[in-house]
Amino acid sequence: MIAFRIDTKSGVPPYMQIVQQVGHALRVGLLDVGDQLPTVKEVVASVAINPNTVLKAYRELERAGFVEGRPGVGTFVTRRPPGPPAGAHIALARSLARWVDKARAAGLDDESIEGLVRSTLYSDRDAGEGAA
User: Fold this and answer.
1) Domains identified in the chain and CATH numbers
2) Which residue blocks in 7-109 are alpha helix, DSSP H?
Protein backbone atom coordinates (compact mmCIF):
# COMPACT_ATOMS: atom_id res chain seq x y z
CA MET A 1 0.00 0.00 0.00
CA ILE A 2 1.15 3.52 -0.73
CA ALA A 3 2.36 5.71 2.14
CA PHE A 4 1.91 9.42 1.53
CA ARG A 5 4.40 12.11 2.52
CA ILE A 6 3.47 15.79 2.75
CA ASP A 7 6.17 18.43 2.33
CA THR A 8 4.84 21.60 3.94
CA LYS A 9 7.72 23.64 2.48
CA SER A 10 7.23 22.60 -1.16
CA GLY A 11 4.64 25.24 -2.06
CA VAL A 12 2.47 22.49 -3.57
CA PRO A 13 -0.92 22.14 -1.85
CA PRO A 14 -1.15 18.96 0.23
CA TYR A 15 -4.07 17.57 -1.77
CA MET A 16 -2.06 17.97 -4.98
CA GLN A 17 0.93 16.23 -3.38
CA ILE A 18 -1.33 13.23 -2.75
CA VAL A 19 -2.60 13.33 -6.34
CA GLN A 20 0.99 13.52 -7.65
CA GLN A 21 2.15 10.67 -5.41
CA VAL A 22 -0.68 8.42 -6.58
CA GLY A 23 0.16 9.27 -10.20
CA HIS A 24 3.82 8.48 -9.60
CA ALA A 25 2.97 5.21 -7.84
CA LEU A 26 0.81 4.21 -10.80
CA ARG A 27 3.53 5.06 -13.33
CA VAL A 28 6.25 3.10 -11.52
CA GLY A 29 4.08 0.12 -10.63
CA LEU A 30 3.74 0.61 -6.87
CA LEU A 31 -0.01 0.77 -7.46
CA ASP A 32 -1.95 -1.15 -10.08
CA VAL A 33 -5.52 -1.44 -11.28
CA GLY A 34 -7.66 -2.96 -8.54
CA ASP A 35 -5.44 -1.81 -5.67
CA GLN A 36 -7.10 0.01 -2.79
CA LEU A 37 -5.85 3.40 -1.65
CA PRO A 38 -5.49 3.99 2.09
CA THR A 39 -8.69 5.14 3.77
CA VAL A 40 -9.08 8.81 4.58
CA LYS A 41 -8.75 7.92 8.26
CA GLU A 42 -5.46 6.05 7.61
CA VAL A 43 -4.01 8.97 5.64
CA VAL A 44 -5.05 11.49 8.29
CA ALA A 45 -3.42 9.36 11.01
CA SER A 46 -0.18 8.87 9.07
CA VAL A 47 0.46 12.41 7.82
CA ALA A 48 -1.65 14.54 10.19
CA ILE A 49 -3.69 16.50 7.65
CA ASN A 50 -7.32 17.50 7.45
CA PRO A 51 -9.68 14.75 6.21
CA ASN A 52 -11.15 17.22 3.70
CA THR A 53 -7.71 17.54 2.10
CA VAL A 54 -7.56 13.79 1.52
CA LEU A 55 -11.13 13.77 0.21
CA LYS A 56 -10.26 16.59 -2.19
CA ALA A 57 -7.28 14.61 -3.52
CA TYR A 58 -9.35 11.45 -3.94
CA ARG A 59 -12.09 13.43 -5.73
CA GLU A 60 -9.47 14.89 -8.08
CA LEU A 61 -8.14 11.41 -8.83
CA GLU A 62 -11.69 10.17 -9.40
CA ARG A 63 -12.44 13.11 -11.71
CA ALA A 64 -9.31 12.21 -13.70
CA GLY A 65 -10.58 8.63 -13.99
CA PHE A 66 -7.76 6.93 -12.07
CA VAL A 67 -9.75 5.81 -9.03
CA GLU A 68 -13.28 4.97 -8.05
CA GLY A 69 -14.80 5.47 -4.62
CA ARG A 70 -17.04 2.66 -3.45
CA PRO A 71 -19.19 3.79 -0.51
CA GLY A 72 -18.51 1.75 2.59
CA VAL A 73 -15.71 -0.18 0.87
CA GLY A 74 -12.95 2.25 -0.10
CA THR A 75 -11.21 3.90 -3.05
CA PHE A 76 -9.79 1.66 -5.75
CA VAL A 77 -7.49 2.20 -8.73
CA THR A 78 -9.40 1.86 -12.02
CA ARG A 79 -6.67 2.65 -14.56
CA ARG A 80 -3.06 3.68 -15.01
CA PRO A 81 -1.93 6.88 -16.72
CA PRO A 82 -0.89 6.55 -20.36
CA GLY A 83 2.72 5.69 -20.96
CA PRO A 84 5.12 2.78 -20.86
CA PRO A 85 4.38 -0.22 -18.67
CA ALA A 86 5.46 -0.06 -15.04
CA GLY A 87 8.28 -2.53 -15.64
CA ALA A 88 9.98 -0.03 -17.94
CA HIS A 89 10.09 2.53 -15.14
CA ILE A 90 11.52 0.01 -12.70
CA ALA A 91 14.32 -1.03 -15.05
CA LEU A 92 15.16 2.59 -15.85
CA ALA A 93 15.09 3.53 -12.16
CA ARG A 94 17.60 0.78 -11.39
CA SER A 95 19.84 1.96 -14.21
CA LEU A 96 19.57 5.55 -13.02
CA ALA A 97 20.39 4.50 -9.43
CA ARG A 98 23.59 2.83 -10.71
CA TRP A 99 24.46 5.99 -12.63
CA VAL A 100 23.88 8.16 -9.53
CA ASP A 101 26.16 5.85 -7.55
CA LYS A 102 28.87 6.30 -10.21
CA ALA A 103 28.39 10.09 -10.19
CA ARG A 104 28.76 10.18 -6.39
CA ALA A 105 31.82 7.93 -6.57
CA ALA A 106 33.27 10.44 -9.06
CA GLY A 107 32.83 13.19 -6.43
CA LEU A 108 29.59 14.86 -7.54
CA ASP A 109 27.24 16.04 -4.80
CA ASP A 110 23.44 15.87 -5.12
CA GLU A 111 23.16 19.45 -6.38
CA SER A 112 25.71 18.76 -9.13
CA ILE A 113 23.97 15.53 -10.10
CA GLU A 114 20.60 17.29 -10.27
CA GLY A 115 22.11 20.08 -12.37
CA LEU A 116 23.65 17.57 -14.76
CA VAL A 117 20.37 15.70 -15.15
CA ARG A 118 18.43 18.94 -15.70
CA SER A 119 20.90 20.27 -18.26
CA THR A 120 20.82 16.95 -20.10
CA LEU A 121 17.02 16.88 -20.13
CA TYR A 122 16.70 20.43 -21.39
CA SER A 123 19.54 20.24 -23.91
CA ASP A 124 17.89 17.18 -25.49
CA ARG A 125 14.55 18.98 -25.62
CA ASP A 126 16.10 22.15 -27.04
CA ALA A 127 18.07 20.17 -29.62
CA GLY A 128 14.89 18.41 -30.72
CA GLU A 129 13.02 21.71 -31.07
CA GLY A 130 15.84 23.28 -33.03
CA ALA A 131 15.93 20.38 -35.46
CA ALA A 132 12.25 20.70 -36.30
Assistant:
1) 14-77 (1.10.10.10), 86-131 (no CATH)
2) 14-28, 40-47, 51-63, 86-105
Of the candidates 96, 68, 80, 92, the one whose C-alpha atom is nearest the C-alpha of residue 27 is 80
pLDDT score at 125: 63
Q: How many Å apart are CA 60 and CA 3, to the nearest integer?
A: 18
Q: Which amino acid type is present at position 93?
A: A
pLDDT in tens, 43-52: 999 998 999 9
C-beta of residue 86 within 8 angstroms of C-beta of residue 31 = no
Sign of the four-CA dihedral 94, 100, 102, 104: negative
Q: Is 49 left (phi over 0), alpha (psi -120 to 50) or beta?
A: beta
CB count within 10 Å of CB 72 equals 5
This prediction's pTM: 0.70
